Amino acid sequence: MEVVGVGLEASLFPCGDEVKEGMKKNDWAVFKSIFEGIKTFLQFRTHRLVLRLDGRRIRRLRTLQVNICNSPRYGMEFSLAPEATMNDGKLDVIYLNNPSKWEHLRHFLTAMRGNRLPHKRLKTHRASKIEVRSYPPLEVHADGECLGTTPVTVEVIPQALWICVPNREQQTSLLKESGFLA
Question: Which residue range forms the structural domain that includes residue 42?
Answer without folding.
Answer: 3-178
